[in-house]
Amino acid sequence: MTVRIGVIGTGMIGRDHTRRIQQVLAGAEVVALSDYNPDAARAVQADLAPAAQVYEKGEDLIAAPEVDAILVCSTGATHEPYVLAAIAAGKPVFCEKPLATTADGAKRIVDAEAAFGRRLVQVGFMRRYDAGYVALKAAVDSQIGAPIMVHAAHRNPTVPEHYLTPMAIHDTLIHEIDVLRWLLNDDYVSARVLFPRKAARSHGKLRDPQVVVLETAKGVLIDVEIFVNCHYGYDIQCEIVGEDGIAKLPEPMAIQMRLDAKLQNPILTDWKDRFVDSYDVELNDFIKAAAQGTAAGPSSWDGYVAAITSDACVAAQEADGEAVAISLPARPALYN
Ligand SMILES: NC(=O)c1ccc[n+]([C@@H]2O[C@H](COP(=O)([O-])OP(=O)(O)OC[C@H]3O[C@@H](n4cnc5c(N)ncnc54)[C@H](O)[C@@H]3O)[C@@H](O)[C@H]2O)c1
Ligand SMILES: O[C@H]1[C@H](O)[C@@H](O)[C@H](O)[C@@H](O)[C@H]1O
């Protein structure tokens, strides 16, 4: 079966996912496109999916009989209504992170999917599909003993002026919030945020860098440095300290050079390159499950937990280093 996919939001990642489906992956084709800016949808149609129908409204694309499954790749604040409409239509939906910009919004999605009674939603937490993180999880599960501490860093070379202090949580830390919970098979109980002096390259409305300290139910202490004006490159670090040893996320493959009297390893500068393979694997998982009328991978429950944790971290940014408690409601049976 070829899964007929409609893509809502044809900006940077919507275009890239369309390219994947049309040119890299098997088992699916993009038959419909929609964007708030119709010219963006038409440009993607012209470049990548000439047979696709362009819809002015995302809601009409979701309802279209030729669309079996939906990708929501629009701006974060617009995800919730599209995901709810896809669930109401009984169609599998892949939603880019964040699932919703508030915990209440994510809960509405969880409630709708649980009431529907079958998984339909996959959230775009692609790091769970990254070969390095998969190997790290195997080491944590079976080699280094029970985890005690995690040291992580999420560094971007630069961010635009519209990137404000809470975005370091909602837009950036959200990846660690999901992947560390998955790596440790644990949930968070509190968050603290500490700010060193502001880096000189941090623009006026942004406090950068910051350190988020998360504590888990099993007593693991996690520190994540978020530094989005680090200048030198796009750098993701993760080290897990266990009872018997330490496991570290591998560096991306790079040619080592002996050149000009230096031993050199290049560092990536663009997030699109760092996780390029994992985007392929996550969408492949979506296509396989959608062909069976369901969804796999990171669930709307995971998206909801990430939203609750993000809200706590944003509150912690204003709490002068004090801990903000995180408590989760009961998990519906659908997500056990
Ligand atoms: N998983 C990842 O690593 C990753 C990476 C980048 C972006 N993202 C997520 O993907 C989403 C899109 O990011 P992007 O970088 O492609 O942004 P972008 O700004 O390049 O594209 C967003 C597109 O959504 C369209 N849009 C806005 N409101 C809309 C609406 N109501 N209906 C339909 N279309 C609408 C815009 O016109 C634009 O074309 C964001 O939620 C972002 O967090 C995830
Ligand atoms: O939307 C991007 C993307 O999610 C990247 O993976 C992350 O490193 C950036 O901080 C964020 O702005």
Automatic annotation (TrEMBL):
Keyword presence, Acyltransferase: no
Entry's Gene Ontology BP terms: inositol catabolic process
SUPFAM superfamilies membership: Glyceraldehyde-3-phosphate dehydrogenase-like, C-terminal domain, NAD(P)-binding Rossmann-fold domains
Gfo/Idh/MocA-like oxidoreductase C-terminal domain sequence ranges: 142-320
Catalytic activity: myo-inositol + NAD(+) = scyllo-inosose + NADH + H(+)
Keyword Oxidoreductase: yes
Record domain Gfo/Idh/MocA-like oxidoreductase N-terminal: where: 3-125
EC number, as in UniProt: 1.1.1.18
Keywords (A to Z) from UniProt: NAD, Oxidoreductase
Pfam families (alphabetical): GFO_IDH_MocA, GFO_IDH_MocA_C
GO molecular function, one term: nucleotide binding
Quaternary structure and interacting proteins, as annotated: Homotetramer.
Function (record text): Involved in the oxidation of myo-inositol (MI) to 2-keto-myo-inositol (2KMI or 2-inosose).
HAMAP family named in the record: IolG
Family note: Belongs to the Gfo/Idh/MocA family.
Record's protein name: Inositol 2-dehydrogenase
Organism for this UniProt entry: Paracoccus lutimaris
Gene designation per UniProt: iolG
